[in-house]
Design brief:
The protein has 122 residues and is an all-beta fold. It is 0% helix and 62% strand. The protein contains no helices and 11 strands. Strands 2, 4, 5, 6, 9, 10 and 11 form a 7-stranded mixed beta sheet that branches. The termini are far apart.
Length: 122
């Protein structure tokens, strides 16, 4: 499975960006997809996630500003980021949790994209 992110770039404080992540390749089931970010000198953190059923989860710092959505038919997720702040500057990574059927049952797998840089200028 390959995850390819797009949509990163430079935005001004208060501006907006929309990230996209397309999953390609074979996987039997997708449990959830999401966005993580890693700022310089900081640990990677979960920003938002969405399950196959549409349930969403957000880190407190982006609630009310970011919206995650999903196109199941296209295996694509989006992250609409509004009212951007300088502290949102980071590399944003797409993440997928899924399962692959094997004789014994289901093997859980996870995949990461290579990341897309978001820079917010104050």
């Amino acid at each position: 499975v390959q995850l390819v992110e797009s949509g990163g770039g430079l935005a001004q404080s208060g501006g907006s960006l929309r990230l996209s992540c397309v999953a390609s390749g074979y996987i039997d089931m997708i449990h959830s997809m999401g966005w993580y970010r890693q700022a310089p000198g900081k640990q990677r953190e979960l920003v938002a996630s969405i399950t196959s059923g549409g349930s969403t989860n957000y880190v407190d710092s982006v609630k009310g500003r970011f919206t995650i959505s999903r196109d199941n038919a296209e295996n694509t997720i989006y992250l609409q980021m509004n009212n951007l702040k300088s502290e949102d500057t980071a590399v944003y990574y797409c993440h997928l949790e899924g399962g692959v059927a094997v004789i014994e049952g289901i093997n859980n797998v996870e995949h990461w994209g290579k990341g897309t840089l978001v820079t917010v200028s104050s």
